[in-house]
Every structure is written in structure tokens, then in C-alpha cells.
Amino acid sequence: MLLDDLKVEEKVKLFNGNGNWHTFDADGKVPYFSMSDGPHGLRKQEEGKKSNINDSNLATCFPTASCIASSWDVRALKLLGKSIALEAQSENVNMVLGCGINIKRSPLCGRNFEYYSEDPLLAGQLACGFVEGLQKEGVGSCVKHFACNNQEHRRQTTSSIVDERTLHEIYLRAFEIVVKNAKPTSIMASYNKINGTYTTENKKFLKDILRDKWGYEGAVISDWGACLNPVKSVKAGLDLSMPDSYGFSDKALLDAIESGELKESELEAANTRIVELAQKLSTSHRDVRIDYIAQHETALKLAEESAVLLKNRGLLPLKTKKVIVIGDFAENVRIQGGGSSHVASGCFPNLIQALQLKGLEVIYDSDLKKIMAEVQLAAYKNAPIIFCCGLPDAYEGEGFDRKDLKLPAAQIELLNQIAQITRNIIIVSFSGSPIDFEFEDKVNAILHMYLAGEASAEACANILTGKTNPSGHLAETFPMKIEDTPCYGNFAVDGNSVNYREGVFVGYRHYDTYDVPVRYEFGYGLSYTTFEFSDLDVKLPKVSLKVKNTGEVAGAEVVQIYVQNPQDEPDEDDDEFRQIRPKKELAGFEKVYLNPGEEKVIEIELDDKAFCVYSVKTQQFEKVTGEYKILAGNSSKNIKLSQDVSIKGKDIDDMFDEKLALELQQFKPVVPHKKGNFDLYDSLEDLSKHSFIVKIIMECLCLGVRLMNRGKSKDDPSVRIAIAGIKESPLVGLISISGGSFKPELAEFILKMVN
Length: 755
What we know:
Layout: H1 8-14, E1 35-37, H2 65-68, H3 74-90, E2 95-97, H4 120-136, E3 140-146, E4 159-161, H5 164-171, H6 173-182, E5 186-189, E6 193-194, E7 197-198, H7 203-213, E8 219-222, H8 230-236, H9 248-259, H10 264-283, H11 292-306, E9 308-312, E10 322-326, H12 328-331, H13 351-357, E11 361-363, H14 368-380, E12 385-390, H15 409-419, E13 425-430, E14 445-448, H16 456-465, E15 478-479, E16 497-499, H17 508-513, E17 518-520, E18 531-539, E19 542-549, E20 555-564, E21 584-594, E22 599-605, E23 612-615, E24 620-623, E25 626-633, E26 639-647, H18 684-688, H19 692-708, H20 717-728, H21 731-737, H22 744-754
């Protein structure tokens, strides 16, 4: 037994990170492993050498999660995982911190570009592909952020108030799928509280659900700085607190063992999982030399598969050899989001250069007066205008949320000027999440690239010119306006808790059930060819159908199978009526590639929780009796085939204590601390409201961040995430994320002064 040679002081250290990216090796007595961020490319930072979050070793920047999710292709995610794993092996990184599978509760979450979908089945199955791709190459995965971390605002201190059914059907379901099917080496516990208890201290989630209910055998690791009470965390089932706490965690654990509050055997259980994981990962390491040209080709392939054609009135693919290109994004393509996932990649063609390499004559000028003259001429000749727009870095990133769905006002104003001259406009948009295409009826084509990595421009040029047929379909809904979103008024609110009142009605489950108009529905995407569905045959749990390419070019279609649930009929005088179940739910999907005239029979096995709800009585998923429909289509609204099925199970009324199943359990809201009872869980921002001196300390720390980032805008994501961390992290969290410069003594001094 490897732990037999360790002193209790070494076991305590083994629970904590050694520096920012490694586990403790007890002077060579036990194996260790190294970690790196990397959901869409490796962000390897040398220990102690790089203080800027964007300063990392050169790596391939692949499409972000929100982009590649639009491929709806598990094979693409396996390829992504494999490609990142190869670079991890070459950099001596044993574990990649990814992928992120938090549900997109609101399109305004600043970190949505790191997440796959609003649907847990799609997110879970894509995550399985990524994890399998990584781990097949001998590199560990760390699926995150477990759980209910669905906003960036006050993510370190807020409590997500969620009822039991919604937890299991929506926010835990993707994690359950990947845990049971892909067996990730580790799971990352999130910053936030769930129903009043920090996830890192939440035995219900880390042990009762994750280990006992789902049978998870891997390691549970904290998000960086999320372990606030190491004693409670060990007891709850956390195995590793990251990063180094510079003695704070060690002292707390030793004191608890000495007093009898914590048993040494409880600590050893966590230690054993980390040592066994280190043993496995260290022995699977091999020397790998990277062919970066091949890696770039992979990035290009994945970007092409993921871009979504939202509108096309005959302008695409381009039929002319001369185009007018407008917008700064054409010259400075936005390829990724800001924060801990930011990859330092090489230099590659921008969109202007990529179009020129395709043989097009490109008219581009940053001088608007000159370019508007070209627009006038283009309108006269009926030539196309490519208008590049999107969200700048300052609009979305880790550590902060968006305020609305709108593009920058200057972009809209310029587009409106051009639309008064011509409608032959092709929109090429770049963002990590939905934006408001309020100008849709003023243009003839829209190609949404998301944040497609280092090959964004080349992929875009290939699609615009027809070399590549677009095949991406939205993995999230684009609403008409933010007021239509189901969590409107209950997202990123000030205070210490956020109430998930919408229950299971997230994304299309809300829009389709209550007939809310949307800009583009879940699963939507156009092609340069056409497809025909036929011969739907249901032999549960499998569904088969024929798909035929009826157009003139090769292409790919995303076949989506939904289950339409039985619906309750509202009473005429019931103004408060809400459905118990969504109108329809995704139950399976497959992407199929077809040449012109080619036809294939597609067989899809339905999700094992199709026809089920989570019963708060039995604490498990239960099949519900009723008349259902199996729907086949290429979006949640564009249903092409259907077949009735009868299901026998339990009565819906037997699932819940009350028929109104979406009503939240009455969790008590988190009560903010007051003078006299502030503790290490409180943030500088909260404490500064009660102490001018604390406010001065906080502002000095923020000033230090700005000085370290001279030359960068205050809106730069790397600056914003650092400042948000200083203001919003609990005091104890600041000790570790500051690299030890924020001392425990300073935290205690601040508390004593405020209280």
C-alpha cells in the first residue's frame, strides 16, 4: 500500500495541490500527475513562470464547445479529444481539465462558449466522445463543473436553488450519461452552492449521487480555489483541492485529525484515489511528436462541420469572383473566448486572406467612406457584400455574464446603412453564444461561425465558396428577445441565491411547449443540398428511417428523434396552469453523410430515460404510462415523420407529492451575513460594504491586477476574470488563487476589523 510509508503531514499535503498544476509526490514516495486547462486546446503554463492567464505554451486552437456541439457528431468530439491528448502527451500533461457540460440555462452566461448545449442528452453524448478520445490516448479527463454552475456572476458565492426533479432531469443528466458510459478519470466540483451548501462540501452530490447512485470510481477535484473548508470537503467526498493553499488547508486538516473531528481513514480514502489515478496516468505517458500541420487540418475539418447556415436566399455558395468585405472581424477574426480556456495559437489567414487564397478578388478597407463607395458600386452591379460582425472579447468571457443579446451598436448602425443600399448582404457572425439577428429580414444570407478556432477563416471561406457544404445545426435556441427566455428575471441577479423557478422547462422544452416564437429553434441548420426522410419504423428502444440526399451536392444531415409526451389539458379558468412535462424531448440523434442521390437506413437507439420522469417519491427515474409520439426531423420544430406508441409504466400522479410538479421545494434562501458573524466564506465585495478599509484593500488588489496587465483594456477578459476573482471569491479562496500572496493572517485581520 503506497500510503503506508506516508506520515500524516504528507497525507494532508496529498489532499492539496502542489503549486498550480501538480499533485504532491511526498519526495518521490508516491506518483504524481500534472494538469492543464484544455477543453478546446491545451493551455499549458509552466509552473511559476507565467502569471498572465493568456500566457501559455503554443498549441492548436480547436473550435470551442459551443461551436463543435453544432456538429452533432460524437465522432468529431472523439477526434477533438484525441488531438488535444496528443499535444498533452507532448507537453508532459497527464490530465486535461475538460470538457465543460453545464447546461445553457440562459444565453447570457458569459462562459457558454465552453459548454455544449441546453439539452442534457446532447451534452452528455458529445462529452462521452470527448472523454473517450482523450482517455484512449492515455490522457485523463476532468469533466466540469459539477453542478448547477450556470452563470458567472457571483459564481463563487451564489446558491443555485433547484428542485429535485429538475436537478436529475436537466442539470445532473449530462454528468450521469458521461459517468456511466465514458467513465472519466475525474470530475470537477464547481464553485457555487446548491440549495445552500457549497458543492465541494456537498455529500449529497459528491458521494450519495455521484458515487453511490451512479457508481463513479474516479477522483473528484475542486475547481481552482473552490475548496473553502477542507475538513468538510474530505468528509463530503472531495479527493483533491486545487491549487496549493500554501499551508491553510494543511493546518485545518491536521487540527481536525488531532481533535478527532476528522478520521485519518477518511483522508486516506481521498489520498488513495489520487495516488491510484497518478499511478495510472504516469504509466500511460509516452513521447509524442506533434505534426502541427496535421493538427491544423483537423481544426479546419472540425470548424467546417460545425458552422451553421442560418439563412440563404440563393446568395451562397458565392457565384462571383469579386466580393466586398466589411467589418473588423474579417481582419481580426475572433476564434475563441476569454478565461482559463484561452489557447495561445499560431498565426493563420484572416477571412480576407482566406478568400483571396480561394481565388476571389476581395475589396476591403477599414475606411468606411471608401468602403461605402464600393458598396454603392456593388449594389449597381448586384454584387454580394460580406458583412462580418459578432461579439468582441469584452462581451463574453469567464468571470462575467452578458447583459443582453445585442451586437455592438456601431455594427448595427453600419449594417442598417448598407441595407438601405442593397439587400445582397451575407452576414458572417462570430460569437460563443446566441445573438439577436434583429436585421434578419434585411439580408439574404447568414452564416454563424460561433468561435471556430484557429482555422475559422479558412473554414468560413470554404463554406462561402462552396468547397464545403455547411452541416452544423444549433445545439441551443436563438430566442427573439431576452424577455422570452424561461429564466428571465431569475438569472445573474444580485444577492446570494438564484432560483431555478422554470424547473425542467429549459431551452426548447420551454419554447416548444408554450409556443413561444424564436429566431432559430434548437437543432436548426441549413445546407446547400436537400434531404428526404421516409419509412419511419419504431421497434423500441430502436428507431429506424431512410434518409436520402435529393440535391445535387454531397452533404450531411442531422437526424433528430424526439419523444412527444402526453400533455395535460388546462381548465379554461386556470390562469396559473403549467404543463408537468415538456411537449417534446430529444431522445436520440445521428449525423449522416450522403452523396447526391444516395440513400441510407439510419438506426438510432433511444435514450434509456425516454418516456421517464424523475420521481421525487421513489428517488429514481420512472417510466410513465401514456400515449406518446416518436418524432423524426432535423430540428425541434421541423418534424418530418411521426409514429404513435403506447407506453405502460406508472401513473404521472404517482411520481410527485403534488400534481404541480414544477413547483420548487421550499428551500430557505441564503441569508447574507451581518456585522458580527462575517466569516472566511464572505467576499471582499460583500465585506467592503461594511468597511471603508476593506474597500481600500480590495481596490488596491484590483489596481495591482491592472498594473500587471498594463496596455490591456479594463474590459479585456483576462483582466475582468482576475478582478471578478478578487471581488467575488470568498476570503479563503483568495489564499489559493492569489498564489499565496493573500495570506491567512490578512483574511483574519479583515474579518476581525469588519466584525
